What we know:
Layout lengths: L4 E4 L2 E4 L6 H7 L23 E4 L6 E2 L10 E3 L3 H15 L16 H8 L23 E3 L9 H9 L5 E4 L6 E4 L18 H5 L5 E3 L12 E6 L8 E7 L2 E7 L12 H5 L14 E4 L2 E4 L2 H19 L6 E3 L5 H14 L5 E3 L4
Parallel strand pairs: 1-5, 15-16
Antiparallel strand pairs: 1-2, 3-4, 3-5, 6-9, 7-8, 10-11, 11-12, 13-14
Amino acid sequence: xxxxxxxxxxxxVEFQPGQTILQAxxxxxxxxxxxxxxxxxxxxxxxxxxxxxxxxxxxxxAACSTPVxxxxxxxxxxxxxxxxxxxxxxxxxxxxxxxxxxxxVSGDCRxxxxxxxxxxxxxxxxxxxSAYQKEDSNPFxxxxxxxCILCGRCVQACNEVAVNRAISxxxxxxxxxxxxxxxxxxxxxxxxxxxxxxxxxxxxPVGALTEKKARGMARTWQAEKIRTTCPYCGVGCQQWLHVxxxxxxxxxxxxxxxPNQGRLCVKGRFGYDFIYSEDRLKTPLIREKDGFRExxxxxxxxxxxxxxxxxxxxxxxxxxxxVSCARSINEDSYQMQKLFRAVFKSNNIDHCART
Length: 355
């Protein structure tokens, strides 16, 4: 079988048919910086940070949207390429307010990383200071268009990844901005298709979209990341818990992990406060005449098992029924129905998510 090859920085490397330069370079351990590229979505080439030289092309080409062809010669690390990328970073920094000292994502900002990599100070061009009002009326998300670089990642995440189609690019030229529901504020539910899954926040490379509950809680380097499984349903979505001082302040998805592949719903991303509720049960409770009393797990389980045996012996299998919780993982729900059908000999088992 003939292998597809092309020249990458002077070396002959293989590529898969249909791959872009960016994808083929990544497969061959060559990193090309990007800002707008979002894995799994249609490439746009909007940021022009991934520019590379391609033999025979008069201009530099965007690696994220240019397909590789057999025999193609590509250079990713030349003076011309570096100069173009640096210029584009300077232009991005010249629009809006990019004060890193006060930015929520400082230390985890791709634009900041690129400015450092290409030694861009941001003072080459006169700054066009946007005058957008920060939108913080939404209970989950803060929008600050003064920091938006119009990369389009939030639009792609909403339309192609989460498929909610609540975000689009509106207006033209210098007035271009990201809009929802006819440019309505986030808090106006009736004017938008937004379900507040937070996927747009997850993919924003700068500080234009941030989580409200995480605001001011910790810098990136101060937080510990702990991988876990979302407790809200049986899908088993993989999460990163961002923890500081033994308290969760933010939840993000694990990229490329099954089954959610970097996506979360509104509950999985924002609904973690219940673990700190004062009403949360921390020990089993046994009902007595005067109310409830705390008990050990052994005592509680022994009591439940004894009562089940009594009911089954006196009234038979149809006297018991069970409802599996939607927050249980699939394996727990399977064991629940197995307990009723195989042990109790009863088909009176249901799941609260069925209706």
